[in-house]
Design a protein that fits this description.
single chain; alpha+beta; 1 helix; 4 strands; 16% helix; 22% strand
Length: 81
Amino acid sequence: MAPTAAQSLFGASVAGVGDFNADGFSDILVGVPNASVGQNGEGAGLLFLGAPVPSIRSPMARSRAIRPALASVRPWPVPAT
């Protein structure tokens, strides 16, 4: 039986990996130890690519700034070695 999303333990480990794709922005790797990608529970690592975030100077600017930044973060499955 495949684990549910809650059982996948997304975020059990998080690590900064520097600028993995050389775009000038820091990236992070998030561990999902119980993810089922091909077989049940083999686990996965998701690479989230960084993006520019405008400076936030007011609460209104903050709410507008968050949405574009989140839209540019894409998970990238990384095979275990």
